[in-house]
Design brief:
Helices cover about 40% and strands about 20% of the residues. The chain is built from twelve helices and ten strands. Helix 5 packs antiparallel against helix 8 (about 175-185). The longest helix is centred in the last third of the chain and has 14 residues, at about 245-260. This is MobA-like NTP transferase domain-containing protein.
Length: about 260
C-alpha cells in the first residue's frame, strides 16, 4: 500500500507588506483574491482532492486571518487540514516541524500562490519524485514560451536550457534533513544564487558559472554530496511555473482559469 503524502502549503507573510495584499485590502497575501476567491483556496483544493495526499498542513504565522475570512474558514475545520505556526524562515520552520516527529514522509511542499496547481501536475510530480530523498519541480523556458510567450519569469541557465522554479518540492525521507539544514544556513542569501550554489562545493559552483552542468546532472551531483538521491522533475505543463506573484501574473492566471472553465 502506498504511503499517503503529507502536503505542506506555505501560507505565511513576509515582514514587508505584500503589494497584492495591500491592493486587495487583505491582511496577508494568501487571502488576496484570484479568479473570484482567496488564492490559497485553489492549491488547497487541488491537494485535498488528490488521491495520493493524506493531509494538508498549512504553515503560516497564524490561522486567525483564515478563520475570520468566510471564504477560507472552511480550511480551519476541514478534517484533512491542520494549521502549524511558521517561524522566521521556511527551512527553520520545516525543521522545527520535523523535530516533533508527527509529520510523516514523504512530504510535498508548495505555496499558497500556486493558483494553477492541478491534478495533472501533482500526478507527474509525485510519480517522478517517488523513490527520491529530495526532488524539485522546474519548467524549461521553451515549454513556457511555447504557450505563453509574453510571460516573464526568472531563469537559471544550464547546459540543458534555461529553467524556472515551479514551487513544488519533495522530501521523500528523513535523509532530506541535511539539505533542509543547508537551506536554513543560506536562506538569508536566497536572492544571491551563486552563494547558494557555492555552499554545495567548488565543482557545482564552477560548473554552474561556466554552464558546464545540466540541471538534472547538477541536482543529482548535489544529492550525492549529501549521500542521498536528488532528482529534477521537468514539468510538462507550462502553467507549473506561473504563480500569483505580481499583478501581471494574476491577469494571466485569471485568463487561464477562465479558459479552463
Amino acid at each position: 500500500m502506498t504511503t499517503p503524502i503529507t502536503a505542506i502549503l506555505l501560507a505565511g507573510s513576509r515582514p514587508t507588506p505584500d503589494p497584492l495584499a495591500v491592493a486587495a485590502g487583505v491582511a496577508i497575501k494568501p487571502l488576496a483574491p484570484v479568479a473570484g476567491e482567496p488564492m490559497i483556496n485553489h492549491p488547497a483544493r487541488a491537494l485535498l482532492v488528490h488521491p495520493a495526499v493524506g493531509q494538508v498542513i498549512i504553515l503560516t504565522q497564524s490561522s486567525a486571518p483564515f478563520a475570520a475570512d468566510p471564504a477560507t474558514a472552511w480550511l480551519t475545520t476541514h478534517p484533512q487540514v491542520r494549521f502549524e505556526q511558521s517561524g522566521a524562515g521556511i527551512a527553520s520552520s520545516l525543521l522545527a516541524l520535523l523535530e516533533r516527529g508527527d509529520v510523516p514522509f514523504p512530504i510535498l511542499l508548495t505555496t499558497a500562490d500556486h493558483v494553477l496547481l492541478d491534478s495533472a501536475m501533482l500526478d507527474q510530480f509525485t510519480q517522478e519524485a517517488a523513490g527520491a530523498d529530495i526532488a524539485v519541480a522546474m519548467v524549461e523556458r521553451r515549454i513556457l514560451l511555447a504557450r505563453y510567450p509574453g510571460s516573464r519569469r526568472t531563469w537559471l541557465k544550464f547546459r540543458d536550457g534555461w529553467w524556472s522554479g515551479a514551487n513544488i518540492f519533495w522530501f521523500g525521507s528523513d535523509r532530506a534533513r541535511s539539505i533542509i539544514a543547508m537551506w536554513q544556513e543560506v536562506e538569508q542569501d536566497r536572492k544571491k544564487g551563486w552563494k547558494i550554489v557555492s555552499a554545495f562545493g567548488p565543482v557545482a559552483l564552477i560548473g554552474t558559472l561556466l554552464r558546464l552542468l545540466t540541471l538534472r546532472g547538477g541536482i543529482a551531483r548535489i544529492g550525492r554530496r549529501f549521500g542521498l538521491t536528488a532528482r529534477l522533475v521537468a514539468m510538462e505543463k507550462a502553467e507549473a511555473c506561473i504563480d500569483a506573484d505580481k499583478p501581471d501574473d494574476v491577469v494571466l492566471i485569471e485568463r487561464i482559469v477562465a479558459a479552463r472553465g
